[in-house]
Specification:
The protein is built from eight helices and no strands. By secondary structure, it is mostly helical. The protein has a single domain, classed as Ferritin (Up-down Bundle), CATH 1.20.1260. Bound molecules: fe (ii) ion (2 copies).
Amino acid sequence: MENNLSEHTRNILGLKLPTDPRWVNLAEIQLEEILTDHAYCEQKAATTCISLIQKNPEKSLLVQELSPLVTEEWGHFRMVLAELNKRDLQLGRQRKDVYVNKLIDFQKKGGSHEERFLDQMLTMALIEARSCERFKRLSEGLDDDYMRKFYRKFMESEAGHYTLFITLAEHYIDKKIVRQRWAEWLVYEKELMNSAEVRGDRIH
Ligand SMILES: [Fe+2]
Ligand SMILES: [Fe+2]
């Protein structure tokens, strides 16, 4: 299972740039910050799924698949919150999410409803993929065995979500178009990661 999952994660993510190895060490010493940022990532995932349902009620497969995802992502928020509480740490205020904002910059603003829909789905797939990769780093690189296991659970969930968003995009839009645009997103994300500051107080 261990090997399969690692292999699976490596293959599916398709990310073009692995996380800077220094990031885990930085995150390790800022647990309150990283847990707070993580909690809001989960909240945003839940909120975005609700918004996608509101904007696409005619897409029944999407509604059917994203409804339980809202519950799952909110469950993740609660798991992170419980971890903060257990350690007597505070859920801080939400920070500016530079990574997500830069991804939103790349979304096509004009164009057809279909093009905008595709970019929204691929943005979600990318956030899930990068989150999965980051959780994998934490699950392998942290000193604390308990926290390694904690992040492993998230890594497994987010890998499933990445594939769900791609599958949903391909259900509604020509596969070739999806693959082509996904390739553009991967290149953009690589440049984004390359130019971003390595910060241990952020998941991304
Ligand atoms: Fe999640
Ligand atoms: Fe997720």
